[in-house]
Amino acid sequence: MTNYEVMFIVKSTMEDEAIAKTAEDVKSLINGESTVTSFKDLGKKKLAYPINKEVSGNYYVMTVTASTDVIKEFDRKVRINENVIRHLILNLDEE
Predict the structure, then answer these.
(1) pLDDT tens, position by position, 36-93
(2) What is the C-alpha to C-alpha distance for residues 15 and 52, in angstroms, rounded to an integer?
(3) How far apart (Å, rounded) are the C-alpha atoms in residues 44 and 1?
């Protein structure tokens, strides 16, 4: 099991309930023996540049302990989700 930090940005043009549901859906993609150690809502922030005509987004950061297969599947599913503008996965164990 490896430690990862996952950051993702959700569209801010949706209703608050839809934003929260999207964040929970993304969080629930980490499943099986994997665990979400911490989950932080960093709030709504202006993007440095427009992404798909979005100028702001809701930022979330979570720390995860997972296997590489779970992270690969997570990455695939997040790319499909139209409500997630961007995401980034960092391996905390590599230096």
Answers:
(1) 899 999 999 999 999 988 999 999 999 999 988 989 999 999 999 999 999 999 998 8
(2) 18
(3) 32
Q: In this structure, what DSSP letter does residue 28 have?
A: H
Fold of 2-91: Alpha-Beta Plaits (3.30.70)
Select from 85, 71, 1, 83 the least CA-distant residue to 30: 71
pTM of this structure: 0.88
Strand (E) or helix (H) holding 49 = strand 35-51
Q: How far is Cα 23 from Cα 36, in angstroms, rounded to an integer?
A: 13
Domain ranges of the chain: 2-91
Q: How many degrees, rounded to 5, is the angle at CA 21 between CA 37 and CA 41? A: 45
